[in-house]
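pasting for ref
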Amino acid sequence: MRADIVPGAIFPDYELSDHTAKRRKLSELQGPHPMVLVLSRGGYCPKDRRQAELLVQLHRELEVAYCRLVTISTDNITETSEYRTGVGAHWPFLCDPGRIVQKDLDIAEYTDSLHNPMIPHTIVLEPGLVIHKVYNGYWFWGRPTLEDLRQDLRAVTKKCRPDWDITQPELKAAWQQGRKELFYPYGKTFVQTLGEQD
């Protein structure tokens, strides 16, 4: 992995075709929300399929928690669509048969010359594609558990939502004053709000 892909850095805003052949940018898929990004070998890998099957369970929680989930694999569009359908996923899968991400991040899995995949990683992103945590999933146990992701997303959400604890008297006063910009979904992300206060 490139040396600059570390917590606090901005993850590249790749634009790739999704499972329907529509071009999508990561920043557009993320919007103002926390996001889990899975860099996958592809549908042929049983470890990747198992991780995706587990994420199907978590995805329902992510939806109600205003978080996003995206998978990128080195599969072509047909394989990507079959991979997504085969595991029962309902989030965007992006396909990168040209290995743009693999090459740019320097994560070619050199031990597999047959498939030429990228080394699997799971990346937890704060709003603005800010890297919160990077997991190397070459070995299955290097991948985050669902509980790891819950804890990461709790920390990210607490950081990016100014109304995390609405029991604070200051927040109640702000609401009564009509300062709805501090409250989701009326306002902005924590990062944007902080920038305006500086």
